[in-house]
Amino acid sequence: MEFVWSPWRYDYMASIGKKSTSCVFCIGEDPSQDASRLIVYRGSLNFVILNLFPYTSGHFMVAPFVHTARFDEARSEQVAEMMELAQRGMRALSALYRPEGFNMGMNLGHCAGAGIREHFHLHVVPRWIGDANFMGITAETRVLPEELAVTYRRMAEVF
Q1: Residue 58's closest CA among 123, 134, 132?
Q2: Is 67 tagged catalytic?
Q3: Residue whose C-alpha is closest to residue 99's, from 135, 145, 45
């Protein structure tokens, strides 16, 4: 039997069932902590952030600065910039990782699978043929070929 060591997953496993006291998407105006918080880019109304527990390398999210759960109440300018940032991020991922496709979407509400229900956000996940393998199915574990700090540096440079 071969073992795949993934110590970065411990933080995720240890956080299951714990309720956060603050919103991870309420980042404020001070960009001095952007690198440690994995914030790749700040737009006018939204920002781009890497997923701390990604499905694949390069998995990022676009979230509005305004704290709201209701996508249907977002201003049209906010939604337009969100889509522009998603496109820009997809172009960056295409240049860096050459994915064969993308999943893009939102989980709005508890029954829809939203992990953070209070602040809507858009996921963009690069995909490759064969990236869904037995690890995710049998061990509920994903194996990522790159550390988040490296992904952050590469994305920030291209963005």
Answers
A1: 123
A2: no
A3: 145
How large is the greatest C-alpha to C-alpha distance in the chain, in angstroms? 53
**8 A C-beta contact, residue 56 and residue 119:** no
Taking the chain (159 residues) in runs of 10, the rounded mean pLDDT of each run is 55 58 81 91 96 86 92 94 97 94 87 80 89 50 70 89
Helices (H), strands (E): how many in the chain? 4, 5
Residue in 80, 25, 73, 77 with CA at minimum distance from that of residue 48: 25
Catalytic residue (one of 110, 119, 121, 123): 121
| Two tokens, residue 23 | 């919103």
- Could you give the domains of the chain? 25-158 (3.30.428.10)
